[in-house]
Amino acid sequence: MSDINMTIIKRDGSRVPYNNEKIQNAVAKALMASGEVATKRVSTSAQIIGLLVECELFDDPTAARNGQMEATVEHIQDLVEAALMEQGLPKTAKSLYPVPPAAYEDARDPQRDSRREEDHRGLRRSQ
């Protein structure tokens, strides 16, 4: 891949350098697990998806913020899923990100609220 200067904003707010290899590795694992692509074509298919995502990222005018290229993890996930769907790999797309990030947060919040409620009622002791 190319040597591109971009920052990725993770869910916790931390920032890391863009690394297309991470995208390719995740896609390759998902392709192997889904079985949608022959084993001998997994590496090439993962590279193609990585290139498609990279092209979309750098064509996106919203990625340039304050003179620097930035993207969120969620945005990259959306691009990967779209690229997989465009390539006719829906099973892989859904297996890679089975629960959308927003749904994940929604699913976690009730659990947190339940624990907080227990703490307030004295049902759970702090240690």
Give a quick rundown of the structure:
With 127 residues, the protein is of the alpha+beta class.
Any descriptors?
127 residues, single chain, 5 helices, disordered C terminus, alpha+beta
SSE topology:
Blueprint: E1 7-9, E2 15-17, H1 20-34, H2 42-59, E3 64-65, E4 68-72, H3 73-86, H4 90-96, H5 101-121
Parallel strand pairs: 1-4
Antiparallel strand pairs: 1-2, 3-4
What does this structure look like?
With 127 residues, the protein is an alpha+beta fold. The protein has five helices and four strands; from the N terminus they run ββααββααα. It has helices at 20-34, 42-59, 73-86, 90-96, 101-121; strands spanning 7-9, 15-17, 64-65, 68-72. It has a four-stranded mixed sheet with strand order 2-1-4-3. A hairpin with a 5-residue loop joins strand 1 (7-9) and strand 2 (15-17). The longest helix has 21 residues, at 101-121. It is elongated, with a radius of gyration of 18 Å. The termini are far apart. Mean pLDDT is 79; it is low at 115-127.
- Sheet of most strands: 4 strands, mixed
Please report the number of helical segments: 5
Question: Class by helix and strand content?
Answer: alpha+beta
Portion in beta strands: 5-15%
